[in-house]
């Protein structure tokens, strides 16, 4: 969030920083520190220095880093933008900014190569071994796969973040078997249950803490405006088509289908009209600096609009209650949800659901499936050393398949292509 859209104090003094308890700063493996940094500042630093965060620079957001478009956002730049929005939301709501910042930086660590498309391939291959879900993989990375701390028995404890920060990174606080009806999203695998239940001590079942809700909203805001911006700049969306009323009803219907029935056609149509009435809405795009500035200012306007509406509604609802952890919930007005859904749905309709993109998506899934099968056939022979050790320690077939999934999920888009070329493609004689 740039200086043009810094969230104001809403006409009054900033809320007092919420209280965090001793349990909130506990770590799965106890640690003793010296120095002036707070426990939450230390968490954020560990995330910033993690290999998982660095790998996000070469992982797909909407357009793959391998597509040759050098300005499009990747998972790392997206995560940095989410963290900037989340940090300012946290300050305005009286939450610890380092907790929310760290959660925003971690929220996409579990994404495999090729984004949600790659997620589909891994979920299908691992369906008989606990499945795959990017958010559950994030918890696994933070508590197991990143190397920082170990238990007394020699088991990896990952980055060993505080309970509050770890819980703030969890969008879906349930397992695959506990997921609400109709939801494919879940937050932990069965063999990560111990650390998940430690993290959730004292938390209401299936309820996200306020910090996780703030991270989730920040992700939605960043996703909606920045992917829309990238789609325009890369010529996937022509503003002239959006402005034309011809085909408008069909577009709104496509957005409604993408949103999964969460909004009526009237709600989405009215949300679209409100967005299109904003001063910096583009009616055409020629790539000039004037149009670049107008598009950038449009995204800034939308970020500020979404954030201010959520802050105002939350503070009005929470009254004097402290928001920290489970003191109260974030409130986002329905019309704001609808406006965010419109921007996300437009990108889905023009980019992700575009017929010209489907062969690419299909080949990406095939590439990952072939790589998974090849690695499984060779057992631990082609795995990186850390994953070879995990494979050797696996107690059953499901655990061994999970290691193969961990290895492939850890790859970037380009390294997945390179591994596939090296291991799966038959060389010409």
Explain this structure to me?
This protein is mainly α and 429 residues long. It contains 18 helices and no strands. It has 3 domains: 11-208, Hypothetical protein af1432; 211-358, no CATH class; 359-423, no CATH class. α3 packs across α9 (210-233), α3 packs across α13 and α12 (265-276) crosses α14 (334-352). It is globular and about 60 Å long.
Brief overview:
The chain has 429 residues and is an all-alpha fold.
Question: Under the CATH scheme, which class of the largest domain?
Answer: Mainly Alpha
CATH architecture of the largest domain: Orthogonal Bundle
Within CATH, the superfamily of the largest domain carries the name: Hypothetical protein af1432
Query: What is the percentage of strand-forming residues?
Result: under 5%
Helix content: 40-55%
The radius of gyration computed from the alpha-carbon positions, rounded to a whole number of angstroms, is 22 Å
Number of domain modules? 3
Structural class: mainly alpha
Distance between the termini: 54 Å
Largest sheet, if any? none
Overall strand count? 0
Which helices and strands appear, and what pairs or packs with what?
Layout lengths: L38 H10 L2 H5 L19 H19 L3 H10 L8 H11 L8 H12 L17 H6 L24 H7 L10 H24 L5 H5 L4 H12 L5 H12 L12 H30 L15 H19 L5 H20 L7 H9 L3 H13 L3 H11 L6
């Amino acid at each position: 969030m740039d200086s043009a859209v810094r969230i104001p104090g809403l006409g009054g003094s900033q809320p007092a920083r919420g209280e965090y308890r001793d349990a909130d700063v506990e770590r799965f493996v106890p640690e003793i520190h010296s120095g002036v940094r707070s426990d939450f500042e230390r968490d954020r630093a560990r995330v910033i220095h993690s290999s998982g965060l660095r790998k996000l620079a070469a992982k797909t957001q909407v357009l793959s880093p391998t597509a040759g478009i050098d300005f499009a956002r990747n998972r790392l730049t997206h995560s940095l933008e989410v963290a900037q929005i989340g940090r300012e939301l946290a300050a305005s709501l009286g939450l610890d900014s380092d907790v929310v910042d760290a959660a925003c930086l971690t929220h996409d660590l579990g994404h495999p190569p090729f984004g949600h498309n790659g997620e589909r391939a891994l979920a299908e291959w691992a369906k008989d071994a606990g499945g795959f879900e990017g958010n559950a993989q994030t918890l696994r990375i933070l508590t197991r796969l990143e190397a920082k701390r170990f238990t007394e028995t020699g088991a990896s404890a990952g980055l060993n973040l505080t309970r509050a920060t770890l819980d703030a990174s969890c969008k879906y606080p349930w397992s695959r078997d506990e997921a609400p009806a109709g939801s494919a999203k879940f937050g932990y695998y069965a063999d990560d249950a111990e650390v998940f239940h430690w993290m959730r001590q004292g938390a209401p079942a299936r309820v996200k803490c306020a910090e996780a809700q703030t991270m989730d909203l920040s992700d939605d805001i960043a996703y909606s405006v920045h992917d829309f911006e990238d789609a325009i700049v890369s010529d996937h969306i022509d503003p002239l088509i959006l402005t034309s009323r011809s085909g408008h009803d069909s577009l709104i219907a496509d957005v409604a289908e993408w949103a999964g029935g969460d909004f009526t056609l009237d709600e989405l149509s009215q949300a679209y009209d409100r967005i299109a009435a904003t001063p910096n809405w583009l009616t055409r795009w020629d790539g000039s600096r004037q149009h670049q500035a107008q598009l950038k200012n449009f995204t800034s306007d939308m970020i500020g609009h979404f954030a201010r509406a959520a802050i105002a509604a939350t503070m009005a609802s929470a009254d004097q209650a402290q928001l920290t952890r489970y003191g109260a919930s974030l409130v986002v007005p329905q019309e704001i949800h609808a406006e965010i859904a419109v921007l996300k749905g437009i990108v889905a309709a023009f980019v992700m659901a575009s017929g010209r993109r489907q062969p690419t998506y299909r080949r990406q899934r095939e590439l990952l499936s072939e790589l998974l099968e090849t690695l499984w056939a060779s057992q631990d022979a082609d795995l990186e050393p850390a994953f070879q050790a995990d494979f050797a320690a696996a107690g059953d077939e499901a655990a061994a398949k999970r290691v193969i999934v961990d290895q492939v999920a850890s790859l970037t888009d380009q390294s997945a292509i390179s591994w596939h070329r090296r291991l799966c493609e038959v060389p010409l004689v």
